[in-house]
Model the fold of this input.
Amino acid sequence: MQKTLNIITENVGQIRPDSVDEYIKIGGFEALKKAITMHPLEVIEEIKKSKLQGRGGAAYPTGIKWEQAYYVDKNPKYIICNADEGEPGTFKDKVILDYLPLRLIEGMTIAAYILKSPKGFIYIRGEYPESQRIVSSAIKEAEKMGYLGDDILGTGFSFHIEVLSGAGAYVCGENSALVESSEGKSGRPRIKPPFIKNSGYLGMPTLVNNVETFACVPYIVKEGGEKFAGYGTEFSGGTKLVCLSGNVKNRGVYEVPFGTTLRELIYDIGGGLPEGRKLKFVQLGGSSGPCIPESMLDIKICYKDLKVKGLTLGSGAILVVDDSNCIIDFLKCITEFFYHESCGKCTPCREGNKQLLALVNKFINGSATYNDLETIKKVGQIMKEAAFCGLGETAATAHLSLIKYFEEEFVEHINKKCRANICNFGGDKDGKR
Amino acid sequence: MVNQEIKQKIIEIIEKYKREKEKLVMVLLDVQKLTEFNYIDREWVNIIAEELDIPYTKVYDVLTFYSMFSTKPRGKYIIEICKSAPCHVNKSKEVVAIFEEVLGIKMGETTEDKIFTLQYTSCIGACDISPAVKIGEKVYGNLTKEKIIEIIKEYRGV
Ligand SMILES: Cc1cc2nc3c(=O)[nH]c(=O)nc-3n(C[C@H](O)[C@H](O)[C@H](O)COP(=O)(O)O)c2cc1C
Ligand code: SF4
Done:
């Protein structure tokens, strides 16, 4: 049975990414041509029917977001494509940026047409300089050919796109921080309300969507929302780009229909683990996501099924971790990430991550007690409830889920035992890294 | 004394972005590439603040907020080792140890000849070839000791 599809990733690698001619040969810009003959609300209706939910992590229904944006009575409206792709283990937006940037540009232009937006930005993380060049070149080519820029397709409607670069800050993926950063400032999240949809870039209404979300739009407009929805489950429409990484044979980005199980993904598509290794756990959705044991792999990739189990798919990162790894050593890597990336604006996150790191280090150097285990849970819970933005709210997700499913390994470390033989208690005070 | 040549180049960069305050991050990214030392000098911050009419402290805030900026001179080639979880479970610690051994410096340091700086980076989107590093704009993956020695040789040869 065919396990992967290519609705969004069709023709990846087959055309020159910045060639408008080659993009047109594979059906490019047909959706834009169709959209300009439709009423904006008709386009929005198709997107609603498609059951498309934001692919950046929060899974907000795209049709509803666009409808709200349409009814905001303030101009000009701006459009920002979130190509910050900061969630560790996520490298799917890069596939679209590098191979099909014109599909993203087409999706954004359709959004712009609906909102009568004069200007959009593609905010690409600083770690992807090559992608920035490819996308900039595609923008220029699309402008030359009349699909972007002034007087698009003779409609009198003009829309310009500019590429902005990030400079290495994970929090800038959060939509209000993204707007701050797009304005050239430090990317610290804003207090909400006012929401970005009403008061975003330079105080004007702003639509923020992920790269993959925009890239789904041309297919939906061209083929109809129902057809797109048909690929997925009852609650999650279409396909999802998932990023398989870690201790698995075939690492990479795969487009799969919603409804695929994690087991199918890891063993059938991913080819399983390298010889002689055993799966220990899987982290879903990047470093901010939960870690789940082998026994839960039959769960389907579907926003609703995951939610019922208290899980999220996040950006689509799926990290496979084998038994040569130590849970605590892994957790240290995660904690250092959040400690480094916390913007410091609010206390629960700034201080919480500091405490979490100190606590995890105690487990690594053999000085942890049962009390410390309880403190991790307590601090994690406080962060989840009291942090100012999604970064702090999710920073302890890995900790809490690992304690839930692998508490005995924490206890082993209290007793100075590391079954993976990675932590050398007391030998090196900070542990190795 | 500010080097007039650098000042001129900074102003050119600011002009390229039409003197828009919103382009501060873009300006800083370009200014950092002006010399071989991959950093932004305090003096240059002054020029940028004046030319863009943004308070010095604001520019400095932005400069220190983003991890890709450095206020201290670095090597010509910055070797950035991915510190994210997917590389971690593919044993990036060993990669760190090999680079440290081959270059004779620790993480965060610059070689005496000012050719290499060794530092961590967040995920570079090369998880399919982890453990991975980025040198300048180039990404290298599936690293082994032999491969690392080859890569260093290649750059030293330049
Ligand atoms: C700390 C943090 C980091 C985020 N990083 C990203 C990111 O890199 N890319 C992205 O598309 N969304 C990211 N998001 C989600 C965005 O805030 C936002 O929900 C999304 O871009 C909206 O687009 P969508 O509805 O198309 O998903 C992040 C959120 C948080 C809290
Ligand atoms: S939760 Fe963390 S990243 Fe978010 S505002 Fe607070 S300190 Fe900043």
In short: Helices of chain B lie at 4-16, 24-32, 42-52, 56-65, 85-88, 92-103, 145-157. The pocket of flavin mononucleotide (ligand 1) is lined by residues A 54-58, 60, 82, 84-87, 171, 173-175, 208-210, 213, 389-391 (CB under 6 Å). Strands of chain B lie at 77-82, 116-121, 133-135, 138-140.
